[in-house]
Amino acid sequence: MNFDFNQLADAEKALVLPLLPVRINEIADCIGLPSAMVLVAALGGCEIRFTKDPACGSFQRLASVVGELAARQLGEQFAVEEIAYIPRCQAAFTALRAKRVTEDFDTLLRASCSTRTAANELAIRYGMSYRAVEKIVNGGCRARSGTPTKAPA
């Protein structure tokens, strides 16, 4: 699941920020959090060499993702020979997805969907299994407004 950090509501940002790895916070301090999240979306799970040399393939790849200025800033900030792992930020993405699934589940129930129909709809929408939706709505992050809901057992 990728997301545009600029599109997140304040409550979603508050959920995601504490779950970001230290490396992403270091990168965000250098190029800004929205650009750091673009980097995660494009290169999360990969290793990349931060360099100041625009002729280097690593610099060009980085520049194609975050722009030439940000690539230059990263090259200046981090050691030329440093090969950095770009985290996938899985904990942050998982927490955000769980929040959205539970909110969407509650919305569907308020719109008179059955729990089975709502869980199936969300499984399709989020590209996950029906059982995974059930686990999230039965024990995961719950929306604070309205009454708690349960999926079928």
Q: What would the keywords be for this entry?
A:
single chain; 153 residues; mainly alpha; 8 helices; 4% strand; elongated
Low-confidence stretches: 142-148
Mean pLDDT: 88
Number of beta-strand segments: 2
- Estimate the global geometry from the Cα principal axes: elongated
- The whole-angstrom Rg is 19 Å
Main sheet: strand order: 1-2
Q: Specify the number of helices.
A: 8
Given helix and strand content, the structural type is mainly alpha
Task: Give the N-terminus to C-terminus distance in angstroms.
Answer: 27 Å
Strand content: under 5%
Largest pleated sheet: 2 strands, antiparallel
Notes on the structure:
With 153 residues, this protein is mainly alpha-helical. The protein contains eight helices and two strands; from the N terminus they run αααβααβααα. The chain has a two-stranded antiparallel ribbon with strand order 1-2. The longest helix has 21 residues, at 90-110. The chain starts with 9 loop residues before the first helix and ends in a 14-residue tail after the last helix.
